[in-house]
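FORM 12-B: Structure-to-Sequence Request
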């Protein structure tokens, strides 16, 4: 089926609320792993720590090294003391950010907000077309350090528990500040597991895509082709591009860790699947009918019903195979979404020594 024939409701599935993971596991690698053969839909149950057994020397893992900002700020209006919330979306200049605010009625242009004991202040400058706010911040010192002290992790709306350790919503290889959400497939890796994977002869290529909150926005259009994808900034270094190109040329597999890594390399590749050093904004929307130019396999979490992420996975492995695998995951009580278990869409289940 092509995008023109597909409806958003074609990607619906029933998910019991109790299967939405509210807390990360103590051991990152202890998550379960549902392996799915992208060619025939067969599945196999595993644990994430054993993923190394299914990676081959000469493969390349592509990982997104973006770092999540503790972008949720809770403060009060200076004139009334009313509680307000500001969520950082995008830096426009040094101290001016595009933000989401709550409640919007109280935060019109000119409103002033205080956070903590006043070491961070803000003024609402303008309302954007989408209803977001442009906000200027005032502080002493380094903004990122102030934010680290006062900000909370912007957890998805389906997670209601308070996160005890900020680092658990951060990959162990997070490097460049800029995301409003974690590339959650990477949360399953530890430094030790990545070292063992490299020692096996698997290359690790790091790319950057700053994840926006649009990743959680539901698809409101019933016709897929009417959905407008949010835009996100990405960057690919020359080293990462060469590593991925060499893997393809030598017959290895390019396996993306997460949909954000996938969208990055598929956006940047030319018509022949060749990558070069590049950066820019991408609003690529991958759904069934899409022909992958670079990606061979995908490690990803279980995604929301009717989301663009389920559509992306269905482009790789087929909608029917994906929905059947999700039904199996529900039957076996896998943990879903950001802090949940993982899926590995691959070409076979042969173990590699």
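FORM 12-B RESPONSE
SEQUENCE OUT:
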């Amino acid at each position: 089926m092509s995008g023109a024939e597909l409806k958003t409701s074609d990607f619906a599935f029933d998910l019991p609320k109790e299967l939405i993971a509210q807390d990360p596991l103590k051991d990152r690698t202890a998550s379960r792993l549902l392996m799915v053969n992208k060619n025939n839909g067969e599945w196999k149950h595993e644990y994430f720590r054993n993923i190394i057994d299914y990676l081959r020397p000469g493969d390349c893992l592509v990982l997104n090294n973006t770092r999540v900002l503790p972008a949720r700020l809770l403060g009060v209006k200076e004139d009334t003391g009313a509680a307000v919330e500001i969520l950082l979306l995008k830096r426009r200049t040094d101290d001016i950010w595009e933000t989401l605010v709550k409640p919007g009625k109280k935060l019109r242009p000119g409103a002033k907000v205080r956070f903590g004991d006043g070491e961070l202040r803000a003024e609402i400058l303008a309302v954007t077309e989408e209803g977001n706010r442009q906000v200027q911040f005032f502080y002493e010192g380094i903004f990122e350090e102030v934010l680290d002290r006062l900000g909370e992790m912007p957890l998805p709306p389906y997670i209601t528990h308070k996160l005890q350790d900020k680092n658990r919503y951060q990959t162990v290889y997070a490097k460049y500040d800029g995301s409003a959400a974690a590339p959650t497939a990477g949360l399953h890796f530890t430094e030790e597991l990545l070292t063992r994977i490299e020692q096996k002869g698997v290359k690790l290529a790091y790319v950057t895509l700053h994840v926006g909150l649009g990743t959680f926005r539901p698809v409101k259009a019933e016709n897929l082709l009417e959905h407008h994808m949010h835009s996100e900034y990405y960057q690919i270094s020359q080293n990462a591009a060469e590593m991925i190109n060499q893997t393809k040329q030598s017959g290895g597999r390019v396996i993306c860790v997460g949909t954000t890594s996938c969208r990055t390399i598929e956006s940047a590749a030319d018509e022949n699947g060749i990558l070069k050093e590049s950066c820019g904004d991408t609003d690529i929307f991958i759904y069934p009918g899409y022909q992958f130019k670079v990606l061979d396999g995908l490690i990803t979490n279980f995604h929301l019903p009717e989301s663009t992420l389920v559509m992306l996975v269905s482009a790789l492995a087929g909608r029917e195979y994906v929905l059947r695998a999700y039904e199996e995951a529900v039957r076996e009580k896998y943990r879903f979404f950001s802090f949940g278990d993982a899926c590995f869409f691959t070409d076979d289940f042969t173990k590699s020594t």
